[in-house]
């Protein structure tokens, strides 16, 4: 492995190498190895902390993500956009709406400008909690145009909580935004099917065929 090669050559875990190894393990879902690398690093910067926080946040390890975030702030390391993406992702998985609101507001205190990925996390958190009207208002008040991830998060919440009217309206916006994305049509069809509106679901599928939009089949390496 890359890590083993570095150790055999007695390469010290400086910032650049340590951060690269930790990031590699995080992206390969090897969080325990990433944490071991992190612990062995004699010096850490915002990249070091953020890689680990994001990894734990995306995988729903809420307590660990926030413990790292608190340690980071206590040690005087200023969080960046990746750090906040990690803690917001943790809030999504933990259903922590109030904490998500607090973290989102905290970004301004640290001079971090919210990006679409942060807005998508907030909408996802609100949507999963059933706060669909608040999520829609949040989108309407965004200083930038929402993308597919932001709108898709709201549609996902609508499906979970059975809000067909809002789900249909936002899904149509999604389709208008990216008409070639088959997943958006499928999402709308599923919302109709879940509500027992099978004729409407079939009409969506027919519309896909008329537009020559096809769903990409899944695949397996097994």
From TrEMBL:
PPR repeat ranges, renumbered to this chain: 45-79, 80-114
Transmembrane spans: none
GO biological process assignments: RNA modification
Keywords: Repeat
Gene3D superfamilies reported in the protein's UniProt record: Tetratricopeptide repeat domain
GO molecular function, one term: RNA binding
Top-level taxonomic group: Eukaryota
Entry keyword Calcium: no
InterPro entries on file: E_motif (IPR046848), PPR_At4g14850-like_plant (IPR046960), PPR_rpt (IPR002885), TPR-like_helical_dom_sf (IPR011990)
NCBIfam families to which the protein is assigned, alphabetical: PPR
Protein name: Pentatricopeptide repeat-containing protein
Species assigned in the record: Davidia involucrata
Lineage: Eukaryota, Viridiplantae, Streptophyta, Embryophyta, Tracheophyta
């Amino acid at each position: 492995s890359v890590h083993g090669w570095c150790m055999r050559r007695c390469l010290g875990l400086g910032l650049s190498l340590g951060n690269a190894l930790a990031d590699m393990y995080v992206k390969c879902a090897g969080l325990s190895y990433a944490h071991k690398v992190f612990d062995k690093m004699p010096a850490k910067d915002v990249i070091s902390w953020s890689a680990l926080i994001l990894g734990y946040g995306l995988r729903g390890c809420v307590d660990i993500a926030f413990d790292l975030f608190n340690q980071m702030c206590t040690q005087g390391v200023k969080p960046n956009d990746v750090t906040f993406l990690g803690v917001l992702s943790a809030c999504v998985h933990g259903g922590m709406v109030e904490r998500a609101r607090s973290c989102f507001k905290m970004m301004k205190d640290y001079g971090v400008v919210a990006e679409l990925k942060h807005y998508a996390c907030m909408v996802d958190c609100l949507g999963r909690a059933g706060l669909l009207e608040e999520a829609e208002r949040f989108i309407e008040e965004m200083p930038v145009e929402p993308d597919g991830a932001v709108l898709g998060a709201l549609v996902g919440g609508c499906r979970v909580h059975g809000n067909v009217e809002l789900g249909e309206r936002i899904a149509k916006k999604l389709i208008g935004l990216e008409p070639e994305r088959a997943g958006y049509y499928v999402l709308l069809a599923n919302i109709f099917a879940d509500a027992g509106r099978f004729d409407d679901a079939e009409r969506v599928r027919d519309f896909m065929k008329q537009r020559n939009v096809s769903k990409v089949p899944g695949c397996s390496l097994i």
